[in-house]
């Protein structure tokens, strides 16, 4: 049975909005803008990826044997596919429950109300309905709400954003996600300690680099799709950001590309999905891989997720630590700022598995 909701996906160049609720069940096809090419269509029953969860409590205990074992596991995973899970992370279960509840609160509003936060062309924050206006084909079957977070303790960036854009009625919404982002920033910095040690540099190396992070929080909402075998909630891509810390609801949909095939990542209520992004791949000099992933949809229930994208301060230069540049592994990527890569992905390039290489070539041409 279809779960009721008021979500709307609007295809471009049409006069009638597509309401993803009961009336759509009478339609025999979905709009062509949402249909993906045959070579990219989803695999709806892939095998599950087996990967041991990383115990953050054990890592933070600084027990030498535990730390060594955990770093070895993380190193192996990140060299292979850039993906792992973390458990015993210290994030309050009630905070997660409140965050997921507020996803429903926002996306079940009427479309005009959500459009008060409409994402502007060329910007990365705001409400997006299938990225209508930005792309005209291979549209993702989803709605998103993205907003900026600054780890500057003198500001409350998230809370101020909702108050300014939506008014006093959204103070609680903004306050809750301000708290959520602060918790995610703390967890991300701890993971950066883990990544640093896994790469053989100091525990502080990457933590210090991201201490003044200017990150992005995204709420993902994937409505049911009449033809899930034709559409994708999110197309195959590597995140251009540094690190993604994702919490899924209990509906499967996330898939990761490993050893030439797609694997499903089963939701775990007590775990966060962590994946390496392009910016950290550049920082690691290509040693750790940016994770190629996508999201599929289903024809029964809504799927939701909370994604925190750790990003450096926009003007900080992303440059590989000298310890990771050797004769055997020479410097692979030019230095850049996150601001420049962000602009590239918003104005010049649709993120995919080749974003970092395309950006590097573009940057070298720009700097000639």
Summarize the structure.
This protein has 368 residues and is of the alpha+beta class. It has a single domain, classed as B-lactam Antibiotic, Isopenicillin N Synthase, Chain (Jelly Rolls), CATH 2.60.120. It has ten helices and 16 strands.
Describe the protein.
With 368 residues, the chain is an alpha+beta fold. The protein has a single domain (43-366), classed as Jelly Rolls, CATH 2.60.120. The protein is built from ten helices and 16 strands. The protein has helices at 56-60, 64-80, 93-107, 111-114, 157-166, 171-199, 204-210, 278-283, 338-347, 355-366, and strands at 8-9, 18-19, 54-55, 83-87, 126-129, 143-150, 214-222, 234-237, 243-248, 254-258, 261-264, 272-276, 293-295, 303-310, 317-318, 336-337. The strands form four sheets. Strands 3-4-12-9-14-7-6-5 form an eight-stranded mixed β-sheet. A four-stranded antiparallel β-sheet has the order 8-13-10-11, with no helix packed on it. A hairpin with an 8-residue loop joins strand 1 and strand 2. The radius of gyration is 20 Å and the shape is globular. Residues 1-7 and 10-27 have low confidence and may be disordered.
């Amino acid at each position: 049975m279809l779960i009721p909701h008021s979500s709307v996906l609007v295809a471009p160049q049409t006069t009638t909005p597509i309401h993803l609720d009961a009336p759509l069940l009478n339609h025999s096809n979905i709009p062509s803008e949402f249909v993906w090419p045959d070579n990219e269509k989803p695999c709806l029953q892939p095998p599950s990826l087996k990967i041991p969860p990383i115990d953050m409590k054990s890592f933070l205990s600084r027990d030498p044997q535990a730390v060594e074992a955990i770093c070895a596991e993380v190193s192996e995973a990140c060299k292979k596919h850039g993906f792992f899970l973390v458990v015993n992370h210290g994030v309050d279960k009630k905070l997660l429950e409140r965050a997921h509840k507020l996803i429903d609160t926002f996306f079940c509003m009427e479309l005009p109300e959500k459009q008060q936060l409409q994402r502007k062309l060329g910007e990365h924050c705001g409400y997006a309905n299938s990225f209508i206006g930005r792309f005209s084909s291979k549209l993702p079957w989803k709605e998103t709400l993205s907003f900026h977070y600054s780890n500057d303790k003198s500001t409350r960036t998230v809370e101020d954003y909702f108050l300014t854009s939506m008014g006093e009625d959204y103070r609680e919404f903004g306050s809750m996600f301000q708290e959520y982002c602060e918790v995610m920033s703390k967890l991300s910095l701890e993971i950066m300690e883990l990544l640093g040690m896994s790469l053989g540099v100091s525990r502080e190396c990457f933590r210090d680099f991201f201490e003044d992070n200017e990150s992005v929080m995204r709420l993902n909402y994937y409505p049911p799709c009449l033809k899930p075998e034709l559409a994708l909630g999110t197309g195959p891509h590597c995140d251009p950001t540094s690190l993604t810390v994702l919490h899924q609801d209990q509906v499967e949909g996330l898939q990761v590309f490993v050893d030439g095939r797609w694997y499903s990542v089963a939701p775990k209520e007590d775990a966060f999905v962590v994946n390496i992004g392009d910016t950290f791949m550049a920082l690691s000099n290509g040693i750790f891989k940016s994770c190629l992933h996508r999201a599929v949809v289903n024809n029964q229930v809504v799927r939701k997720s909370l994604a925190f994208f750790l990003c450096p301060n926009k003007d900080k230069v992303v440059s590989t630590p000298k310890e990771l540049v050797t004769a055997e592994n020479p410097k692979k990527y030019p230095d850049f700022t996150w601001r420049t890569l962000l602009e590239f992905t918003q104005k010049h390039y649709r993120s995919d598995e080749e974003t970092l290489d395309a950006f590097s070539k573009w940057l070298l041409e720009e700097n000639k």
